[in-house]
Amino acid sequence: MSDNAKLEFKGEVYELPVITGSEKESAIDITKLRATSGLITIDNGFMNTGSCLSSVTFLNGEKGILRYRGYPIEQLADKSDFVEVSYLLYNGELPTKAQSDAFYADISKFASLPDGVKNILNQFPADAHPMGVVSSTVSALSCFYPEFLNPEATDEIKEKAITQLMAQVKIIMANFYRKTIGKDPVDSNPALGYSKDFLNMMFDGEIDDEVASALDTLLILHADHEQNCSASTVRVVGSSQANIFASVSSGVDALWGQLHGGANQAVLEMLEEIKNDGGDYEKFIAKAKDKNDPFKLMGFGHRVYKNFDPRAKIIKVACDTILEKLDVQDPLLEIAKGLEQAALKDEYFVQRNLYPNVDFYSGIIYKALGIPTNMFTAMFVLGRLPGWLSQWKELREDKVAKIARPRQVYVGETERNYKDISER
Ligand code: CMC
User: Fold this and answer.
1) How far apart are CA 375 and CA 275, in angstroms?
2) What residues line ligand 1, using a CB cutoff of 6 Å?
3) Beta bridge mates, 13
4) Which of 248, 256, 349, 351 is most buried (most C-beta within 10 Å)?
5) What spacing in Å lies between the alpha carbon of 301 and ligand 1's midpoint?
6) pLDDT, tens digit, for every residue of 46-79?
7) How far is the CA of 202 from the centre of ligand 1 (A)?
8) For the segment 231-288, what is each residue's pLDDT rounded down to a tens digit?
9) How far apart are the CA of 181 and the centre of ligand 1, in A?
10) Ligand 1, residues 43, 259, 260: which to mutate, most atoms within 8 A of Cβ?
11) Does residue 153 surpass a pLDDT of 90?
12) How far is CA 138 from CA 129, 159, 172, 290, in A?
């Protein structure tokens, strides 16, 4: 029996090859379908379209599985650290001690920003949204490092891009935050370790190890998520051979929206709204179910996870731990838990397999760490950088990768003749 799929259309049968991945997932290869049958496929939101073969991250939404390079997220969150996970995503294997040290030494080489970038940062108004600041400044980096503009950049240069962006994006974020509170920037001190250095640049004081470790775990949980909206954007932009900064900057913009990374800010604002409204979360569940109301339960639902989001499970536990450690009594946590319980029992959410996602509890942790609400999505950027860079590297090393260029079904006017303005 042939392993090909068959498509019958107007009496003709077209054979389509089926590709099977290492986790036995199968995909019909329709690349040549238009040439043989004249048909294209249409798939709103790419709900059922694979855009590439990838060996970075495996995700099974029905079973709630997430693995980076084969390693379960639960093990990485428990045992690894963000720098090691970034190395793993980018290089495919866990580093030896020497490799990990060398990787971090490379990150540490970029412990400052060019003066021109500092000047640009200073020009943003203090109330600018941090995502706009990060996106523009990452894009601006391309003007200061022209060696990255060559599409045939060597491995050495590509390697530099991940270490450079991992170092400089956190400086950009912390420096801008300092500006918003009217304080001078704090120099990066890589000897503190990745997450502690970031917190030190933000808050300029003794940073507790457990607090830094909680942030590190959050960054690990956000590090990659296969072909999501922002990673796909990075790949689409990179597929034209645009430079790494342009590609990552577009990823930042794609992440900003509240259906994607922007949900973490939206969740906190929603919880505040529920609190200020008297804490009646049933009322907000009713609003989320009402098809005439645009309100959605932020932090709930996922395109791929239809059972539970394994990242949300880990974050919920981390949230309890960190709030206890910092002795924070946040009424928003109680509202979040109540809302979750009520939604999980509700027929509407049960039928649609809507569960809390990674963004539901992360904001409560960020808030406890002292990070302002409008900076939450930029925190997601910090975590997601190694994922975007690994997806970009994989794309650029893929010998058969093509420029991303979907087709469409045109539904506009058919040909008509131009009318002079006096006849319209
Ligand atoms: N509140 C209320 N109803 C919802 C929600 C929600 N949060 N999410 C989905 N639904 C409903 C939706 O209205 C639809 O109902 P019906 O079948 O009656 O039309 C059904 O569930 C299926 O939803 P969908 O919008 O078709 O699903 P999607 O895969 O296109 O969207 C999503 C996924 C994440 C954009 C969506 O669930 C959502 O908007 N969630 C809230 C925003 C959010 O938390 N985003 C963060 C995602 S996790 C971080 C990341 O990786 O980006």
Assistant:
1) 21
2) 45, 225, 228, 259-261, 263, 288, 296-303, 352, 354, 357-359
3) 8
4) 248
5) 5
6) 999 999 999 999 999 999 999 999 999 999 999 9
7) 33
8) 999 999 999 999 999 999 999 999 999 999 999 999 999 999 999 999 888 899 999 9
9) 35
10) 259
11) no
12) 14, 17, 9, 40
**Cα–Cα dist 130/382, whole Å:** 12
Name the pLDDT band for 303 (thresholds 50, 70, 90). very high
Residues 6+ apart with CB under 8 A from 270: 284, 297, 298, 299
Ligand 1: which of 253, 289, 302 to mutate, most ligand atoms within 8 Å of CB?
302
Residue the block writes with tokens 């930042």: 252
Torsion of CA 355, 261, 187, 156, to 10 degrees: 110
Query: In terms of Cα–Cα distance, which of 97, 100, 96 is closest to 86?
Result: 100
Q: Where are the domains of the chain?
A: 4-65, 75-398
How many angstroms separate the first and last alpha carbons of the chain? Answer: 62
Phi, psi angles (nearest 5°) of residue 150: -75, 120
Rounded to 5°, angle at Cα 399 from 396 and 403 = 65
pTM: 0.96
Task: Give the lowest-confidence range in 84-88, 357-361, 382-386.
Answer: 357-361
**Which residue is closest in CA terms to ligand 1's atom 36?**
301
Tokens of 318: 């981390």
User: Which residues does the annotation mark as catalytic?
Assistant: 302, 359
Looking at CATH, the fold of the domain delimited by 75-398 is given as Citrate Synthase; domain 1 (1.10.580)
Residues in a beta bridge with 26: 20
pLDDT over threshold 60, residue 1 = no
Please report the DSSP string for 101-167 in residue order.
HHHHHHHHTT-S--HHHHHHHHHS-TTS-HHHHHHHHHHHHHHH-GGGG-TT--HHHHHHHHHHHHH
CA of 300 to the centre of ligand 1 (A): 7
CATH number for the region 4-65 comes to: 2.20.28.60
Strand partners, 9: 12
Longest dimension (CA), the chain: 77
**pLDDT category, 2, cuts 50, 70, 90?**
low
Q: How many residues does the chain have?
A: 424
Distance CA 339, CA 280 (A): 9
Q: Which atom of ligand 1 is nearest to the CA of 352?
A: 21
